[in-house]
Amino acid sequence: MQIVGYETAAADDEQPALLVADGGTVRTEPLAAGTELSYQLGRRHCAGTFDYETGVHTACDREQAPYCDRHTTRWACARCTGDCDRPLENCREEHAIYLAAFAPATFKVGVTRSWRLETRLCEQGADRAAHLRTVEDGRIARRIEAEIATEIGDRVRVDHKREGLHRAVDAEQWESLLAAYDPVETFTFDYGLDLDVQPMAEHLAAGTVQGAQGRLLVLEQEGTIYAVDLRELVGYELEPGGSDRALQSSFAAFE
């Protein structure tokens, strides 16, 4: 068995999940709160390819993970600043420009197709967000994003998101930022984690699921709360049984 992908909870009626390949087919491993996971992580290598329509997985044994050069797909818009001729069909769709907030006070600007706005924000695990404006295509949106990014930034590291999982957004700083943009609408998201300590970063697939925020899966194991970046699990082979590694414990585990 190998972890070949993951799904985030991008809507209230959805649950995060791991995509696990076994013998050429892929099954979904639900990650709803309360789920008990009991896997050991084995060797990590390229996750190969997965056809979502047929459910067929093609394995790859190359050492690069999560994907080797042959199986890496590069998103053409990842570094686009609007200096293009709209090469993709998606570029011609209506786009929204947004600000996202991650507790306690990390902010970023981003763009997405307007119909995916709330989904995209949940995928990223934003605590709060603001829809700044809607424009006719992706090229215009990227140009506006690039301009705003010189002041705010357009990337947030996963570690920074983890460090704020147990905290609330600094409302004063957020409102001060929004005052300069007059947003169309604002959003507040609740992922149901209700943490009072910062989770510890780990790579594991064992423990009791507490919930997920974006691609961060929160697990409890022997009194310690861990946050696992789901993308960092892709490529690992799985074996039944709890983690056999010595894990760092928080002080809360001894209280």
Provide the descriptors you would attach to this structure in a database record:
15 strands; mainly beta; 255 residues; disordered C terminus; 4 helices; four-stranded antiparallel beta sheet; 35% strand
Overview of this protein structure:
The longest helix has 12 residues, at about 140-150. The chain has helices at about 115-125, 140-150, 160-165, 170-180; strands spanning about 1-5, 15-20, 25-30, 35-45, 50, 55-60, 95-100, 105-115, 130-135, 185-190, 200, 205-215, 215-220, 225-230, 235-240. It is built from four helices and 15 strands. The strands form four sheets. Strands 11-14-13-12-4-15 form a six-stranded mixed beta sheet. A four-stranded antiparallel beta sheet has the order 8-7-9-10. With about 260 residues, it is mostly beta strands. Residues about 250-255 have low confidence and may be disordered. It starts with a strand and ends in a 15-residue tail after the last strand.
What is the compact description of this entry?
The chain is mainly beta and 255 residues long.
How much helix is in the residues? 10-25%
Largest sheet, spatial ordering of strands: 11-14-13-12-4-15
Number of helices: 4
Number of DSSP-assigned strands:
15
H/E element string? EEEEEEEEHEHHHEEEEEE
